[in-house]
Amino acid sequence: MIFITGDTHGLNDTQKLEKNRTLASLTNTDYLLITGDFGGLWDGDWHDENVLKFYSDQLYTTIFADGNHENFDLLNSLPVEQWNGGKIHRITDKVIHLMRGQVFNIEDRSIFTFGGGASIDKAYR
């Protein structure tokens, strides 16, 4: 199963995930797809460690397409791998960044990742 959500912003919005019964039933063969604003890699501090620990402790694998609230310099400094037909940055064994402009084949589905949305708060970052 692929469970789709967005805008988790690090740990800020994980309570909506923790309360979801469907997500709680996912197994180690399932995926949580975050469609932008994962926010799990920001500056490598304790917050990032806590976010990655939260997702790495789940049974499912978390995959995410980047949004406008990501640290692109940090993401793009990671090694690139091929995975399910597209290019990724593997953050941990259980957390995978799906790079833009790729088509992934996951559970008999094709998922195209793209970006480019405008950030309303870009001037503040």
Explain what this protein looks like in three dimensions.
The protein has 125 residues and is α/β, with parallel strands linked by helices. The chain has one domain (2-114). It has four helices and eight strands; from the N terminus they run E-H-H-E-H-E-H-E-E-E-E-E. The strands form two sheets. A six-stranded mixed β-sheet has the order 1-2-3-6-5-4. The chain has a two-stranded antiparallel sheet with strand order 7-8. Strand 7 and strand 8 (109-113) form a beta hairpin. It starts with a strand and ends in a 12-residue tail after the last strand. 23% of the residues are buried.
List the helices and strands and how they pair.
Layout: E1 2-5, H1 15-18, H2 21-24, E2 31-35, H3 46-56, E3 61-65, H4 72-76, E4 81-83, E5 86-92, E6 95-98, E7 102-106, E8 109-113
Parallel strand pairs: 1-2, 2-3, 3-6
Antiparallel strand pairs: 4-5, 5-6, 7-8
What about the largest sheet? 6 strands, mixed
Number of helices: 4
Number of domains: 1
Rg value: 14 Å
The backbone outline, from C-alpha atoms, is globular
Q: What is the number of E strands?
A: 8
